[in-house]
Design a protein that fits this description.
The protein is α/β, with parallel strands linked by helices. The chain has 19 helices and 25 strands. The strands form 6 sheets. It has a 9-stranded mixed beta sheet, with helices on both faces. The protein has a 7-stranded parallel beta sheet with strand order 5-2-6-1-7-10-11, with helices on both faces. A 3-stranded mixed beta sheet has the order 16-17-22, covered by helices on one side. The longest helix has 17 residues, at 538-554. The protein binds glutamine.
Amino acid sequence: MGFKTKFIFVTGGVLSSLGKGLASAAIGALLESRGLTVTLQKLDPYINVDPGTMNPFQHGEVFVTDDGAETDLDLGHYERFTSAKMGCNNNFTSGKIYYSVIMKERRGDYLGGTVQVIPHITDEIKRCIRLVAKDVDVVIVEIGGTIGDIESLPFLEAIRQFRSDVGKQNAIYIHLTLVPYIKTAGEVKTKPTQHSVKELRSIGIQPDILLCRTEKELTKEIKAKIALFCNLDVDAVITAKDVETVYEVPLFFHREGLDEKIVELLNIWTRAPKLKHWEELVKKVKNPEDEVTIGIVGKYIDLRESYKSLNEALVHGGVANNARVILRYIDSEDLEKAERGYTGKDVEGMLMSVDGILVPGGFGSRGIEGKINAVRFARENRIPFLGICLGMQMAVIEFARNVAHLEGAHSTEFDENTKFPVIYLMKEWYDYKSGEVQRREVCSQKGGTMRLGSYPCSLKTDSLAFRVYGKSQIAERHRHRYEFNNKYRKILEEKGLKMTGTSPDGELVEIVELKDHPWFLGCQFHPEFKSRPMDPHPLFRAFIRAALENRKQASV
Ligand code: GLN
């Protein structure tokens, strides 16, 4: 492009959950549609080194990248909205930044100096930002948290300095705020935005663009008022109105003139944006011809925020089949009680009306038996079934218990003394990424011992998996500790459980299928991380198609 890499810093004000991640991703999509190359980075002010150890209910999904980083779920938005590839350098936390500064201090890198937030932490933050600034036109850096938080100060100071380092036309600040509509007054209020901008300016950052999250379209007068109070051009005040589908956000921003303003401020000359594929996508999401209901069986508290990528992948699968996917969350603990007749609800009652059953990944023993019941229901009633990670492990356990009659078969994660540990901690396995044999100690169960990131998998040609993918070599992302126990391979295979995907050396079972079932597949990996709205993942595409067929058959 002939210019230096440009930087966009996205901050958030007033309160959290305004959709900063989505806004950043949408900005990325718009710049790509103008022919620019982009990448995105998330800077999170919390102290955890990565979100891998955080409670998913509090933090939401942990998104896993090809290189095995456990990252903030916003990186999932970035990958779904743009073609940028995320990796360990695209997400830094305060913990990670301090950790590396402290390591340097211990090594003696600072030559006896006093190590301080300014300049040492701020310099480290700036170094980390520059890490992703290679071979791209624009880097979009999202700062987690809300302006006013104590923890975010070093990050804000670093990005403040950054503009002086790279020059005015090479860095801009975009601030996302809330403009609430007050029903009793019948009008929108700009005060929270004014305060938030004031706070930002007090630390030396004057935003160049404001994204105003609001229920109502902002009138010219309101925009002029905000512009005046916040010291901005009127066309730099952008309405970020609630939309029906997240994929509408880039189109909405474009109509508001956001991408035009960004390239003007950054002094970049680009072609006009090509947004046809986004328009078509939104049309498909909003006006599908068909609909299908998928039952997602999980722990109650995991069911919403912690499956962002999964929910999106199901939407993508629907788009590929011109169908709206209705998600029915089923608490697996209810399915447990149901069998014991406690609630009056029965397994059948809850699962009968769904067209496909999905058991997603998870940790912890709550609701495990309910998940196993759900698998059994899908197997016996020939309902399309997709088991992901823990869901695949449940499928193996269910089959071992109820078909192969290995009574009490379990994963050692939930029953250390099970007689038939069909899922267990593999002590040694060959790691393709490092080219070394990995050893896992039973006593070191938390952190650092998971199989993480992209691993190759070879598919048997005579399988559902091969038909779905249309090729025999695939690579998918992992995040788990436990594996299929090869000791039981033969007996389960004899009974009709097919191991159709394995690591290239055949040692790690990656996909299981049922011999006599229309559509039943469990995978040890997480396909949802690689699904894109413009390129739905083959497994979700095929699973939704099978569920649609099941529905049509049931209605004749
Ligand atoms: N708890 C299981 C394991 O660690 C599954 C993890 C998951 O579903 N991501 O192997």
